[in-house]
Design a protein that fits this description.
Helix content is 27%, strand content 14%. It is α+β, with helices and mostly antiparallel strands and 241 residues long. The longest helix has 24 residues, at 90-113.
Length: 241
């Protein structure tokens, strides 16, 4: 497991913020998006040689504050607050996305090079809607808000052996659905003693099943927000602050 709690360029002087691998502190200097991409490619290559099944949970922290793109090491050294309220530009944001796309491509290339692409499931998604430099049009709202711009996220899955390329599903989905979906793909299911709040999406993704009705609920402490969706209807409570 690789954790990161510091700037995008190398570890700072603080002893409490550093890279960790299997809970052991390690030190690498470089742009974090590249470091994570390198490590993911290493894992793919290692498991390709062993022939063992594997799971890689790859969490890039770009595009995200602090707003640093490749080559912005001086900005990293200037920062004292990771929230980076006084920095960033649309151009920096775009460069961050480009570098993330490059590393995603390297991981896919590693799967291709090792002959693993056909039967490897790849999911690309996010944890929330855009913020500050992103454009959530045609929706309103952004990260920290339960408006559609804060909730709608990309969700792309690739599994050539089972899912046809270029398809689009009308099924309402939520991030918690990935757990039962991936377990079903592996031929198992959640422990009955600990049932998942999500649903298995494989019938929709690989068999073209008709969309099923869903009721989804959210709450968020900022502005005492609450939201619910039932079919095409949505309820939203958000206090002005």
């Amino acid at each position: 497991m690789l954790d990161y709690f510091t700037h995008k360029y190398g570890p700072p002087s603080s002893d409490t913020e550093d890279l960790r691998e299997d809970d052991v502190k390690i030190r690498h200097t470089g742009y974090l998006t590249d470091l994570l991409g390198n490590r993911a490619v290493e894992v793919v290559n290692t498991y390709a040689k062993s022939g063992q099944p594997f799971l890689v949970s790859l969490h890039f922290n770009a595009p995200h504050w602090p707003w640093e793109a490749p080559g912005d090491e001086a900005e990293s050294q200037r920062l004292t607050n990771l929230f980076h309220f006084d920095g960033g530009t649309q151009r920096t944001y775009r460069r961050m996305i480009q570098q993330m796309d490059l590393q995603v491509g390297r991981v896919l290339q590693a799967l291709d090079a090792n002959g693993m692409a056909e039967n490897t499931i790849v999911v690309f998604t996010s944890d929330n809607g855009g913020e500050r430099y992103s454009d959530t049009w045609p929706f309103t709202g952004r990260k920290t808000e339960l408006l559609e711009g804060g909730l709608r996220i990309p969700a792309v899955i690739r599994w050539p052996a089972r899912i046809a390329a270029g398809g689009v599903s009308d099924q309402v989905m939520i991030s918690m659905d990935w757990l039962p979906t991936l377990l079903a793909a592996a031929g198992t299911a959640p422990d009955p003693a600990y049932p998942s709040d999500g649903v298995n999406l494989l019938p929709s993704l690989s068999q073209g099943a008709a969309p099923m009705s869903r009721k989804l609920f959210w709450r968020y402490k900022y502005a005492d927000q609450q939201a619910a969706r039932d079919g095409d209807w949505k309820y939203l409570k958000i206090l002005s602050v």
